[in-house]
Every structure is written in C-alpha cells, then in structure tokens.
Amino acid sequence: MKPTDVQEPRTGSAILRTALRRNAGAMAWGTVLMGLYQAGETAFPIALGLIVEHTLRERSLASLAWSVAALAVIITTVSLSWRFGMRILQKANTTEAHRWRVRVADCGLQPVARDVDLKSGEVLTIATEDADQTADIIEVVPLLISSLVAVLITAVALGVASVWLGLLVIVGTVAILSILSLLSKRIGDGTREQQARVARAGAKVADLISGLRPLHGFGGNHAAFLSYRRVSTEARNQAITVAKVNGAYAGAALALNAILAAAVTLAAGWLALDGRITIGQLVMAVGLAQFIIEPLKLFSEMPKYVMIARASAERMALVLAAPPVTTPGGGRPSPGGDLEVDGVRYGSLRELKLHVPAGEFVAIAAYHAREAADLAAILAVKVPPDAYEGVVRIGGHELKDLSVEAVREHLLVNPYDAEIFAGTLRTNIDPAGTGRRVAEAVEASLLTDVVALHPDGLDHEVRDRGANLSGGQRQRLSLARALAADPDILVLHDPTTAVDAVTEQLIARNLARLRRGRTLIVITGSPALLDAAGRVLVLDGGAVTAEGTHRDLLATDDTYRRAVAR
Fold it and tell me: What stretch of H or E contains 221?
C-alpha cells in the first residue's frame, strides 16, 4: 500500500497512537525482555543479601556454590535480555522513523502542494529530526514499563524486610515524578519552539544557497547573510534555553534519585542497628538503594522524552494533515492536443488570451519578466486553477478537470532555474532510466561538448546543484532533460540565457528540427529563438498585444524591435 493510500493522522496524538499500534508486537517483546533485564538487575542485590544471610547461618561450601551458580544465571539473564530487548526495540524504532520520513517526504513531493505555511527547509527538518524523535516513543514506553517493574520489585523486596522501607521507595518515587513532570512540560514547550526556529533557519539557508548567484549579482548577499544570522541566532538562543531546562531537569533528577537512595540506605542502617532487620537484609537494602538510582533515573527521564516525541509528532501533523491547495480532477488530456489560454487574470496577467494549435512552434516575447513568470507558473500548475480568473484548456479539456499528474505528463514546463541533481549527466537527463531520446536530446541541446570533455561521457559525476558545471552547462543539461522527456506540449522558459550567441543560434535550429510536428512554446527574448519560431506572440501589460513572425514584427513594430534587438 502506498503512503498516500493511508488515512493521514490529523493530530500529533493520533500519530503517536498509530506508531504504538503498528509496533505493538515488537514493543510487547521488548517490554518482556527489558522487564526481565530490570528484574535480573534487581534480583542481584536481593540474591547477595540472601547469600550473606544463609552463609552466616549455615557456613556451607555447597550453599556458597549454589549461590555463585545463581548469580551466574542472573548475570546471564541480564546480559541476554538487554541485548535482544534493545535489538528488537531499536529495529522497530528505526523502521518506524523511516516510515514517517517517507510519509512526510511523500506529502512534500505530491503534485498538488499542501496548504501549510512551511518552507521546504522546514519540511526537511520535520522529515528527519521530527520523524526520528517521534519514533523514539517505540523505545520510551517499554523502557518506562521496565523501569516501573524495577521500582516495584525493589519496593516489594524492601517491604518484605520492612514496611517502612517499601513505603519510602513508593512515596519517594511519586514525589520525584511529580516534581519532574513540571519541568518536562517546560521542556516540551521549549523543544517545540526550538524545532520551529531550527527549521526556519534551515529554510533560510536553503533559500540562500539556491539564490546565491543572483544575490551576488545585485549585491544583496550581505543583507541576506545578516538575515540568516538573525534567524540562526534566534535558533541558537532557543537551543540554549532548552539546554538549560534539560540541564536543570537532569540535575534535579539525579539529585532527587540520590536523596532517595541515601534515605533508603540510612533508614536500612538505622533499622539494622535497632535490630528490626538482619545483616543480610541490610546488605540487600544497601545494594537496592544503589541499584535503584539507574531505573529511577531512566523512569524520571521518560516524561521528558514523551513530551519531545509529542512535540515532534504535532509538527509532523502540520504537514500530514494539511489539505491540498486545490482538488484536481481525474481526467486526462487527449494526446497531441492544442493549448488555449482564455481570459486569464492572475498577478501581472490581464485577460490573457492565446491559442497554440497542436504541432506548432510558438515563441512568446514577454516585455516584463513578471508576466513571463506568471504565465509559466500557471502552465506548470504551480497556481491552482481556482486561484485565477479565466480558463486554461489542453486538448479542449479545462485544466481544473484534469489530474495534475496527467497534465504534467502531457505538458512539461521547463523553468529557467531548473534544478540539477547530484548523480551523473545521464541520470539528470533521463531520471526514469527509460533511455528514450537521450542521444537526440544531448545533440539538440549542444551538450555534446560536455559529454566529450570527460572520459566517462554521460556517466560523468555531477555534484549537488551542478556545482562542478558552468552556468551554460547547467542550462543545457536542463534543456536536454526537457527534450528527452518528449511531452506532447513542451514549454521552455528562457532556455538559453547563459549560453553565447553562436550556441544559442545552433540550439534554436536544433529545437525547431527535433520538435517538428510536436508543440513547442518558448517564453524568451532571444532573437535566435524568436526567429526560429513559426509565430511570435508579444506579451505586454498582461495581454497579447501583437503577433506575427519575428522578422515581420521587427519591420513593423518599433517597440518590439527595441525590446528584442541585440
């Protein structure tokens, strides 16, 4: 079953319940084994007390031998139960964290965006850190129960020796948990705020990296770095605050547990001096007082981890429970259909009307970059159909009646800033590995020189974001990927802004040749691409103001000539 086929949890509590229910079997076995481990740990000082008691009374080597054998069994039980118990729980924890990472990533990669006020960097943080911290609940609950088992066994064993010792352990444990529960609430609130601020800092640095070159271009990098420093400082200050609360919590837990252990030891010593418990029981009480510090520490830390897991689960619910920004239809466009934009009003577009028949090569000369960007966004379905006035039709079908997946299979919009991924030239051109039209796409985009430059050819390694490629090489690689996809309708937005004039001229001719008989729309101000197109539409003031061939418009339209002539 795919993640999208599962009903998404609506709240953080629902996410935690889902995680617990899904891992009930592993948690049950883990709880049994970890409970056995804690019982064995508790049995060790009890056994020592009994050994001292019987040795002093009987003074028998056989009894001593049986006692040593009993200790060996206890030690073996402790070792094996811990090993296999933690193995089961950590495997379940890791698997559950993976499931939630996949669920969050699936939401972020859906064709229809979610209506959530989070940037990609924040979603990334939720898909990693929050998913891991939510899955920690799988280990927390069994460890909590096993620690409770240890405390109860200790209380019963001491209660058998003296009711007052048993009551002291129970009352002391309740008091410790009551005090620490107040601090755990502060930790949960602080952790939630810290995670949000760290996510905002991650989103800011992601935006900076993607826009670093343009920022350098107009000198805005210093202001951007200052903005990131401010967000990062806020995250650091919040992390320090949470660390202080965590430190106070850990210190308080350690101090309270030590006080309880000391109280048990002193009480047992006083009872022994008073003759109300034996020497063997005193040894047992002192041993249990030392042992109980560890399960009490673990027991007292569990509320903190529960609050952290709940805070992370609530952040995941922001993504998983967010509704889509639009509800697309389920239809599919007809193969080889035309494209029609009828009366669209959105952003800088004003009653935009244009029609591109199937198989035509049309260039759109937008005088303003904002108009080109708005048109590309609408055709790429980045803007929901109900967010603008007017209608976009593909093959006679309205865009709102078609599924987003079907639209993008039929109509591909390649943006001017298309991402380059870590991998190879081949995997960037043909991510699906179908091998269709890769050679033709490489040739048409003039990526042949890049392929020939490296011994590995198409298998040449590409770094993240194409860091080891020039701007022109990245742009041609992106163009090759769009051409290799070979959709019915291909829209290219400024595909040659980073290449020289000669290369641009050759690419324009190659595009016309490769896409002959297939619909091609190029939003551009390049004279070479405008000249290669069969028809040019002039986009100005949000509407088409003129159309014709490039050369006719050069001869008859002064505004066009001034806008596109180089």
Answer: helix 221-273
- CB neighbours of 267 closer than 8 A, spacing ≥ 6? 162, 164, 165, 168, 285
Asked if the model's pLDDT at residue 192 lies above 60, the reply is no
Q: What residues pair up with 493 in beta bridges, in sequence order?
A: 523
Cα(546)–Cα(254) distance, integer angstroms: 79
The percentage of residues in the chain with a pLDDT greater than 70, rounded to a whole number, is: 82
| CA quadruple 274, 277, 281, 286: dihedral sign | negative
Cα distances (Å, whole numbers) of residue 71 to 56, 59, 157, 173:
18, 18, 17, 28
Could you read off the pLDDT of 302-348 as tens digits, one per residue? 777 887 888 888 888 888 887 776 777 778 887 777 999 999 999 99
Q: In Å, how far from its chain's centre is CA 564?
A: 44
Angle between helices 137-161 and 24-58 (to 10 degrees): 20
* Distance between CA atoms of residues 162 and 450, nearest Å: 84
Burial environment of residue 193 by CB neighbours within 10 A (0 to 12, 13 to 18, 19 or more): middle
Contacts of 361 (CB under 8 A, 6+ apart): 511, 512, 515, 519, 520, 522, 532, 533, 534, 535
Q: Could you tell me if residue 466 is left (phi over 0), alpha (psi between -120 and 50 degrees) or otherwise beta? A: left
Mean pLDDT within 449-475: 87
* Beta carbons of 410 and 485 less than 8 angstroms apart: no
- Give 109: exposed, middle or buried? Use CB within 10 Å, 0-12, 13-18, 19+: exposed
Element (H, E) at 93: helix 61-108
Three-state secondary structure readout of 525-538: CCHHHHHHCCEEEE
Report the alpha-carbon distance of residue 292 to residue 527 in Å, rounded: 81
Cα of first residue to Cα of last residue in the chain, in angstroms, is 56
Q: CA distances (Å), 444 to each of 8, 146, 480, 491, in order?
A: 45, 67, 7, 16
Place of tokens 């620690």: 147
Contact status, residue 166 vs residue 260, Cβ threshold 8 Å: no
Read off the amino acid at residue 458: L
Asked whether the CA dihedral 515, 521, 524, 529 is positive or negative, the reply is positive
- The DSSP secondary structure of 478-520, one letter per residue, reads HHHHHHHH--SEEEEESTTTTS-HHHHHHHHHHHHHHTTTSEE
3-state secondary structure of 416: coil
Going by their DSSP bridges, the two strands 423-424 and 389-394 should be labelled as: unpaired
CB 491 within 8 A of CB 411: yes
The residues near 116 (Cβ < 8 Å, ≥ 6 apart) are 318, 319, 322
Tokens read off for 393: 């039709």
Q: Which two tokens stand for residue 19?
A: 């995680």
- Dump strand ranges (E) for 347-497: 349-356, 361-366, 389-394, 397-398, 411-414, 423-424, 461-462, 489-493
How far apart (Å, rounded) are the C-alpha atoms in residues 168 and 181? 20
Per-residue pLDDT tens digits for 464-507: 778 888 888 899 999 999 999 999 999 999 999 888 889 999 99
